[in-house]
Amino acid sequence: MKIGFIALSGVRVVDQELMRIGLNLPGFVERSKVIASLPSLGLLTLAGLTPDHHEITYLEIPDVDAPDISARLPGPFDLVAISSFTAMIKDAYRLAARYRTAGTQVVLGGLHVALCPDEAAQHADAIVVGEAEPCWPRLLSDVEQGRLQSRYQADKPFDLADAPMPRFDLLDPSRYNRITLQTTRGCPWNCEFCAASIRLQPGHRTKPVPKVLAELHRIRKIWPHPFIEFADDNTFVDRRHGHALMDALVPERIRWFTETDISVAKDKPLLQKMARAGCAQILIGLEDPGDAVEGIELKGNWKARQVSSYAEDIRRIQDHGITVNGCFVLGLDAHTPDSFDRIWEFIRRSELYEIQLTVLTPFPGTPLYDRLARAGRLLHPGAWERCTLFDVAFQPAGMSPGRLRQGLIDLSTRVYAADFTEERRRRFVRRRLELDRVS
Ligand code: B12
Q: Nearest to residue 420, comparing CAs of 357, 351, 359?
């Protein structure tokens, strides 16, 4: 069969004013440029599970509504596998409709499909709900035998020891400046708003280190000096795996970025290894520097128990030469118009190298969505295109939606301004020089 693996690419914001302001802020532009060019690891993984007798193509479509897209629809294919998150899912549905009209069978999968399977099923010949690895080979053989089912779902969590080698070779080497690689999946915490892979499968799992290395070596055959972004939710929460992974990465001499939680700050030997293994930056969901984190983590209020040592923990991590990208969520229930200044003060004093500001977003299928829906606080139910992390889609508890939007704009303008961005960079370098002098 001829199979097309299609990702909807790019970064989206509905509110064009936010987009315009965001795109003009120096600190923001840098990160947007970097992330906008990441490939879909989900699809490369499925391609890796596809037997060789199929002819496969991987492609990214930035704009499903481009004027001549119907005429230029890539193909012909016998089967098209489309991946999308919530924000782009309606584009994915329109693309699916075009292929189906042309007689091509369409399979949909990914986070949004797992979160809203009944909706997605109306737009595809088949959907895969949740992790796809256990279902994909059977789905392909069903297509070949003309008995494609409408829904596939694994009955147990996928063991990452069985993870296939993603088909990095399908990518055009010149198009990507960063490559994603997964070393763990999931997270032991359950933050109310989280719409990442704990919604595919709860809990946290690790990929055996030799498998991670094999993937890295495959990447290095194509990109000899890659910058790697681990597509993990919380890389270091399993300490034993984290240490083993770092030991293995030291000789690889790569630079990399990942997402983890603030508890790494308490493990000095791990931080030393991370630095030696080429860690450039870790992204950490701090959410808020004060009482507003209360209740966000639903299992044991874990985040609220960390917040008092945020500043000290950030310093300890950065003192190892690893920059921290601290993420703050605006519009939490305890936030009022005064909160923006409070967050700004923390950011200004914290020495954080990088900052990510987003708006609380009710992704469907999350506990947050259900709570806000029950309370009648969703402003645009079903408007998935607003699930961008920047557009305001709900009625905040402590201010109007307009005030929240303005707060995001004002705080972003301060945080991503050229002089403050420069000051953060310089502060980090100064501190490194200071530490080098005393050591
Ligand atoms: C890398 C990444 C990106 C990259 C690459 C995106 C891509 N095309 O894959 C870029 C930078 C482009 C990106 C953009 C965006 N992202 Co992003 N991104 C991530 C990140 C860091 C890792 C995702 C990943 O690679 N996971 C590993 C793979 C293996 O998992 P997976 O994709 O879920 O795939 C598995 C299954 O879902 C399934 N599957 C996936 N696709 C398909 C398709 C078919 C046909 C089948 C059968 C199965 C299947 O099979 C895979 C194996 O089991 C996550 C955060 C995180 N830590 O996970 C956020 C995350 C996925 N992004 C998020 C968001 C909001 C966005 C944006 C909307 C931001 C914006 N304002 O524009 C855009 C939209 C992108 C789009 N085009 O749809 C949210 C999504 C929440 C949601 N439920 O929708 C996340 C969870 C981050 C968050 N803070 O909440 N992102």
A: 351
Quote the pTM value: 0.95
407-431 residue pLDDT tens: 999 999 999 888 999 999 999 999 8
> In a mutational test of the pocket of ligand 1, which residue from 6, 16, 85, 125 has the highest number of ligand atoms less than 8 Å from its CB?
85
Q: Is 409 contained in some domain?
A: yes
* Ligand 1 pocket by Cβ (under 6 Å): 7-13, 35-36, 38, 40-43, 45-46, 81-88, 107-112, 128, 131-133, 180, 182, 195-197, 200, 231, 233, 259, 363, 387-390
* Same domain (yes/no): 122, 203: no
Is beta strand 79-83 parallel, antiparallel or unpaired with respect to 203-206?
A: unpaired
Both tokens of residue 115? 């979160």
Q: What's the CATH number where 54 sits? A: 3.40.50.2300
Distance (angstroms) between ligand 1 centre and the Cα of 258 equals: 14
Nearest-CA residue for atom 72 of ligand 1: 11
Residues 319-377 pLDDT 10s: 999 999 999 999 999 999 999 999 999 999 998 999 999 999 999 999 999 999 999 99
Residue 135 lies in a domain: yes
Which of 118, 153, 188 terminates a domain? The answer is: 153
Number of domains the chain is built from:
2
| CA dist 224 → 36, 45, 234 (Å) | 21, 21, 26
Cα 231 to middle of ligand 1, angstroms? 9
